[in-house]
Specification:
This protein is an all-alpha fold. The chain has a domain of about 80 residues. α2 packs antiparallel against α3. The radius of gyration is 21 Å and the shape is globular.
Length: about 140
Amino acid sequence: MEASMKTSVLALAALWAGAVLAQAPGAAAHADHMEKLAILLDLTDAQKPQVATILKGQHAQMRTLVEQTKAAGGNPDFQALHAARQQIEQDTVTKLSSVLSPAQLKKFQALQQMHPHGFGHRGPPPGAPAAVPQSN
């Protein structure tokens, strides 16, 4: 009985550790990104959670856009994706303008331009077919 209890506890501990390790890179990367952004923008303690919420919303919108594109199948329309991404980014800037000072917003926009495809978003893969304008 005691041996099976130890085995169960060890198995549960290993499963829990695996789950923690599987989540750690994403969570750690997000926390690291927010920490750096807080320093670069000189965010106040009150601004940090507001900015984090806005950026999480932007990330969710981008993720939804990618999932919808994958679900549609076929060749993606990169021009349409680019336009949608730009709209999401503009909406984010609009939301941030109510939280950040003009100087902070200017810094944020400069950071966006330094990473034109967003953090971790690299645009169409090399050799991907060019988007063909569709006529209606």
